[in-house]
Amino acid sequence: MKFKINVLVIDDDEIVRDVFLRIFQKRPNVELFVAENGYQGLEIIKRRRFNTIFLDLGMSGLNGVETFQRIQELDLNVKVTFMTASSNLSLEERAKRIPNVRVVDKPLEIEQIYKIIEIDSQYSGHMN
Amino acid sequence: MEMEIAGNRDFKRGSLFIKIFLLMAGLAIGISILAIFIFTAHHIKEMKSSLTENCEMLAELASMNVQSGYFIQQWPFEILKKIKDIENIVYWRIVKPDGQIYLADDAGLWGKKIDDEAVSTRIPLIKEGIFPETGEKIGVIVRPLDIKENGKPWTFWIGYSLEPILLMKKEILLTGFGANLLIIILVGFLAFFFSKRITKPVKELVEGTKAISEGNLDYKIRTESHDEIGELANSFNRMACDLERTTVSRNYFDNIIRSMIDTLVVLDSEEKIKMVNKATLDLLHYREEELMGRPASILFAEGEVLFKKEKLVEMIEKGKIRNFDTIYLTSSGEKIPVSFSGSIMRNANGEIEGIIGVAKDMRKAQKLISELKASNLELTRSKNAMLNMLEDLDESHRKLKVLHAQLLQVEKMSAVGRLAAGVAHEINNPLSGVLGFAQVLLQEIPEGNAWRNDVRKIEEGARRCKKIVSNLLTFSRQEEFSLELANIGEVIDSTLSLCHNQIVLEKIRIIRKYEKDLPQVKVSIPHIEQVFLNLITNAIQAMPEGGELKISTRLRGKGDLIEISFADTGKGIEKEILPKIFEPFFTTREVGKGTGLGLSVSYEILKRHNGDISVESEGEGRGALFTIILPVEKTEDEV
Q1: Interface test with B, best of A21, A26, A86, A90 (most B CBs within 10 A)
Q2: CA nearest B460 in A: which residue?
Q3: Which is nearest to A122 in space by CA: A51, A47, A61, A55?
Q4: Which end of chain B has fewer beta carbons closer than 10 Å to its terminal beta carbon, N or C?
Q5: With 50 as the cut, is the pLDDT of residue B639 above it?
Q6: Per-position DSSP letters for B57-71, written without gaps between them
């Protein structure tokens, strides 16, 4: 329990960020950061290493894929899960072609979120 | 010309004009002649009686002189000589009772005897005779004298000529006739004009009658007189007027008959030709007079039975004969096929008056018929060809209809898909909040709390929304498929394993009949699994009391198709809704129990695999059969 799992959620929709905040409000082993756009997310990533990142695909400004490309420049090994509201098919297609990332449909099941965090933290050796 | 004839008609023997004229002229002449005669006779009688009277006075005077002369024995010769000189006096005689002439103007007669009864008359006599010397007609006065011999008186005779009277008579008659001639001419003229005046309206009546009988009903007689003839003319005009109103003129009928295109023949009761129209004459090259009164058989080719006895009898019994094919014969012997129709004409008493026959020249028609037969044959051929074409067309039309329906379906689907894509983003994000917060709450609300149930309902609702949106999105996600070769039996089995628990729970018996060595198909496995899952879930739900689901696969067509069928023993599907079950949002389940998108998504998925899905059901309670067709993927060396 010494190590906290670092999770970043980048989504321009407040309600999505709020759900994540609420889910992990009473889970002290998870350190949750939220960013409301790609740039904000990148700023946070520059200062901290994350076990897993939940990245919204269809954002204004930098979209999910563009944000992902810049994340790769900063941290090649971070696990990224794209969240899609299925509104932009070509973007989704592009995301799906990227190796070693997940694409999940919104809305995410709470169990799904737990599972993703569990897997990614084990893989990166941060979860005990 | 007409006028001349009409004028001459006046002088025809026996005409009314002549009758009246002759009567009047004759009467006038007769009366005038009679008048002349009466006048003449009267005048002559007057003259005669005055002559006789004079002569009587002369005779009396002479007698008295003779008597006195006798008594004094001195004959009054002077006086007697003078008597002879008096005009018209032819002779004088003194005659003895024995007839011997005692004295006379002619000395040659003295002593001669005359044989006459008058010699012994005792009363004066007047008689007529002929004076032998000149042969002229004379009157003789015989007067007895007071000289007696043997008791018998002598007689004094005086003869006077009647010639002047006769002459006068002749003169009068001549003058009378001369005057009469003038009168006759005058009277003739009068009679002419008078009779003309009488006969003129009569003549006009005659003309009018003729005109009307010829059909000229417009003809009106001018009436000037107000006598009976004028009245007759008036009533005649009225009659003509009535006739015009009530009848069609003969001219009109004649015209109709003459103008008829078909030939018309009227026969009398002895089958002799009574009338023919122009068309008949033109057709058969006869002149009218050549046919009139001839037997009807002249019109027909030899051996034509129409006017043999039995045919006529038949015609009379039936009253008519219609479209009888027979042959007419022209004057030059040419045969003309005709269609003959005839009917019996009866008079008011029902007796046969004749036969009316109409014949239609069939030469053109027959030619047409033969042409028609030829073209009919052609037509039949074309018709058959056309029928074949029509069948093909029908087939294509049917196919086209199916295609059209499919196209319409695709249109509908993609429209729904586009809509779904548009709203997906807007729905999925808030849905993330609803689902996420509900699930967080569920983790935090202790068991037994009444709120848990409510929040679970929220979670459930959010999940359903998610599913609906995801199903809708399937329509618009063509690029999503990642196709891979698969053994269809394995895909079915893996799907069955997904719902194994449910199958056991609902007591469903699964019968699998897979054809061996089926070729592989190139499919998006998760999507095909979704289709199978849909069908299996539907089947399970159709059999709430348990049942049998038979899943079979087989090769179809030329080996290029694989058929997968799902046959259940459930409640089946009503015939009316069968065509609708692949439409989006169509569901038979109660609201909330199904999205109504399962089958339409399946349909869409299969269409995108170039496959198909169809359904059959015998109706409620008889199960349903879903059949899926998928194309076989060509082997690699073919690609």
Answers
A1: A86
A2: A109
A3: A51
A4: N
A5: no
A6: HHHHHHHHHHHHHHH
Q: Amino acid letter at A62?
A: L
Residues of B in contact with A16 (CB under 8 A): 429, 432-433, 436
Q: Do A15 and B433 touch (CB under 8 A)?
A: yes
Mean pLDDT taken over chain B: 81
Q: Which amino acid is it at B513?
A: K
From A39's Cα to the closest Cα of chain B, the distance in A is 21
User: Looking at beta carbons, which residues of chain A come within 8 Å of B425?
Assistant: 58, 85-88
Give the DSSP letter string of B169-199.
HHHHHHHHHHHHHHHHHHHHHHHHHHHHHHH
Q: Give dist(CA A76, CA B575) in Å, integer.
A: 60
Interface of B with A (CB under 8 A): 421-422, 424-437, 439-440, 443-444, 462, 466, 469-470, 473, 476-477, 479-480
Bridge partners (DSSP) listed for residue B143: B156
Please list, in sequence order, all residues whose beta carbon lies within 8 angstroms of the beta carbon of residue A42, skipping any fewer than 6 positions away. Answer: A67, A70, A71, A74
Burial class (CB in 10 A: 0-12, 13-18, 19+), A74: exposed
Minimum distance, in Å, between the CA of residue A83 and any CA atom of chain B: 10
Residue in A87, A89, A110 closest to B436 by CB: A110
Q: Which two tokens stand for residue A121?
A: 């933290």
What ipTM does the predicted assembly reach? Answer: 0.86
With a pLDDT cut of 70, the percent of chain B lying above it is 88
Instruction: Between B125 and B553, name the one with better pLDDT.
Output: B553
Nearest to B477 among A18, A26, A89 (CB): A89
- Cα-based torsion angle of the residue sequence A7, A8, A12, A14 in order, rounded to the nearest 10 degrees: 40
Q: What is the pLDDT of residues B350-396, one digit of tens each?
A: 888 888 888 888 888 888 888 889 988 888 898 888 888 888 888 88
Q: How many CB atoms lie within 10 A of CB A42?
A: 17
One-letter amino acid of B518: L
Q: What are phi and psi of B287, to 5 degrees?
A: -95, 155
- Predicted confidence at residue A1, as pLDDT, reads 47
pLDDT in tens for each of the 128 residues of chain A? Answer: 457 899 999 999 999 999 999 999 888 889 999 999 999 999 999 999 999 999 999 898 899 999 999 998 888 788 999 998 877 777 888 888 888 889 998 899 999 999 999 998 886 544 43
Q: Of A10-24, B314-328, B348-362, B457-471, give the lowest mean pLDDT range.
A: B314-328
CB contact under 8 A, B444 and A20: no
Please give the residue of chain A at the shortest CA–CA distance from B421. A87
